[in-house]
Design goal:
By secondary structure, this protein is of the alpha+beta class. The protein folds into three domains: 66 residues, Alpha-Beta Plaits (2-Layer Sandwich); 73 residues, 2-Layer Sandwich (Alpha-Beta Plaits); 113 residues, Alpha-Beta Plaits (2-Layer Sandwich), CATH 3.30.70. 40% of the residues lie in helices and 16% in strands. The chain has a four-stranded antiparallel β-sheet with strand order 3-4-5-6. It has a four-stranded mixed β-sheet with strand order 9-8-7-10. A two-stranded antiparallel ribbon has the order 1-2. A hairpin with a 6-residue loop joins β7 and β8. α1 packs across α2 and α4 packs across α5.
Length: 286
Amino acid sequence: MKNSPFICQWYVASLLSLVHITAEKAIIHHYMDDVLVCAPTDDVLAHALDLTINALVVAGFELQEDKVQRMPPWRNLGLEIGKRTIVPQKLEIKAKIKTLADVHQLCGALNWVRPWLGLTTKDLAPLFNLLKGGQELSSPRALTPETKNALEKVQHLMSTWQAHRCYPNLPFKFMVMGKLPHLHGVIFQWRNNIKMDQGREDPLLIIEWVFLSHQRSKRMTHPQELGAELIRKAGVQIRELAGCDFECIHIPIGLRSGQITKAMLEHLLQENEALQFALDSFTGQF
């Protein structure tokens, strides 16, 4: 199986599927030699973890006890998972940029942490612009004052921002944010039983950020189409993450005067095909 990662993945999945039949309340994620076991209670978790370890040992796998993480923070696939928050493990930002290959490596690493840190396309635009020009990986590149400022902001966000673990009893919501042309969105939950003035706890739980591609379409794009694309991407993501849809979707609408009405929303949907497709089968509030 050392020569075939696919066979290894398939074989471990077949073992863990039997465990899940017995511990049906548990969630078991695995990728290659990393296995993450989650459960609603400590008792169910302990039982599922014991079953998982036994199944792997009986199949001939060798487990290192010091690698079994039983207490937080848990480290899995580059993430550090605490009791309430999720942050990327320490990411080394290589500020020495000499070639296009260095820029590709840096932008790839930053794209990976964006959903948890809220690094907007506008924040990273100076770095993405370094990808333009000669396409040879050895093409020379150098940091500009703008890219240095962008990297400083990245370092600050990596040390201060975080995402949250979701609450299973709370619905998910989505909000389109930002200013044109750099719209972005956030998947979140809201704890109604917590007020801002009650200590340090925030009722807002940021689950994940959603961004549009830095490569903008060459055709004319309406703001509603950008919002629709964010809604579509967020819908796919929440179904993969939680197997459900949003309870409510918030979009920004500029008003010259007065208040938004139901008729205005209906007109917006009727006039925009992209929004119609993005909200197809959506039964929540909009």
